[in-house]
Description:
Organism: Didymodactylos carnosus
Domain Glycosyl hydrolase family 13 catalytic: 114-475
Helix content: 25-40%
InterPro entries: GH, GH13_cat_dom, GlgX_Isoamylase_N_E_set, Glyco_hydro_13_N, Glycogen_debranch_GlgX, Ig-like_fold, Ig_E-set
Family: Belongs to the glycosyl hydrolase 13 family.
CATH class: Alpha Beta
Protein name: Glycosyl hydrolase family 13 catalytic domain-containing protein
Strand order of the largest sheet: 6-7-10-11-14-15-16-17
Amino acid sequence: RTHQVWHVYLPDSEPGQLYGYRVDGPYDPSNGHRFNANKLLIDPYARAITDTLEWHDSLFGYDIQDPSPDKDLTFSTLDSAPFIPKCVVVDPANFNWGGDCPPKIPYHETIIYEIHVKGFTKLNPEIPDEIRGTYAAIAHQSTIEYFKQLGITAVELMPVQHFITDRRLKDQGLTNYWGYQTIGFFAPDVRYSSSSNHGQQVFEFKHMVKKLHKAGIEVILDVAYNHTGEGNQMGPTLSFKGIDNNNYYRLTENDRRYYFDYTGTGNTVNCMLPNVLRLIMDSLRYWIMEMHVDGFRFDLAATLARELHAVDRLSAFFDIIHQDPVISQVKLLAEPWDLGEGGYQIGKFPSGWAEWNGKYRDCVRDYWRGEPSMLSEFAERFTGSSDLYREERRGPTASINFLTAHDGFTLNDLVTYNEKYNHMNGEKSNDGESYNRSWNCGIEGPTDDPTVNERRACQKRNFLTTLFLSQGIPMLVA
Length: 478
């Protein structure tokens, strides 16, 4: 034990070694302690994780079958080891980067393409069946040729850090497709690997980055450090909760049994504590230095900057990043809001950051569907949103201009539907944004009417022309 940190050295461990942690201590949820040595835990610093989660009652620190409303205060004696994925020892030197060099494309020349590793490649007939939906598929020559023809300069990968599918979804036969329930901030998710699950996913990811860099394309990761997949007091004990719940998470002051939830996921990572900030910074440096990525898009970035409860542009999170000689040199993109009070922070991030400009998206959608009195704001958004960024002299490249993203309607949806119809994904259309500022051009849904279809095609051209002529960094979604 050194400075309140427990550590152990295993001299005979080799690459491929599987392991997990058991942490003993007080089980006292009302005071924030949820230690339970019956639970095998994922190492927060694990470089690779073997598999997806196999849901079982033993994964919960409490007796989930207890009928009382306070069952999260009970103690589970079930051993979770058979059902939790294992951590893998990885040899970082076992890969030849062969002179790989980051493209370092200036912000003003950047065009971002948001993609999902599986969704973008799973149905591509030019990619061999055995690698579709994987990092290897992104590295395939047909994929890279398409990127080059499209003219994009950076791919923004939706979450690839190891994540879980919530039990509720699993019980309904559904899956966490997007991946915003991270449980391993250093580990590339094994689901997107065509190789062995004993660490080979790390090398497959590196090969993908190397191939993209050779083509002059940057790799940006969508990262969700604001929360984890462990949920609130009713969630499972998989890693952080069983190692140091009292410090890893923001707990309510009066009863530390409960979690602050600025993220809509049940918990909020506690970025006010040095060891938690260190974990995040170590993770970012690892992805830059060892995995050679070129930047990050921070999910719900306002949460990371909350000091006590308010978002603070002088927070320790920003301060440490700007002082770091490695992290400060890559692209830093923010989703500049969260779900808490005062969380909408467009235009409030410090110099060196670019922001997803939600006001650009909303204004351009409203303008082209004919909302009144939009011309003045449209001109502001078209010319770089200086009303948002002039105070800090940040310039147009502080604005990530986008019309569509993984959230909400696609471009085709925008000109086809006035209402959402999310029925086929099993959520009974209760998910997703209901107000998309869309216009169906006269008929709801697909139609054979040639006039409506021509109007829709024209609207798509209007949207894309606006995007590419606007001052700022354009982003497309695959």
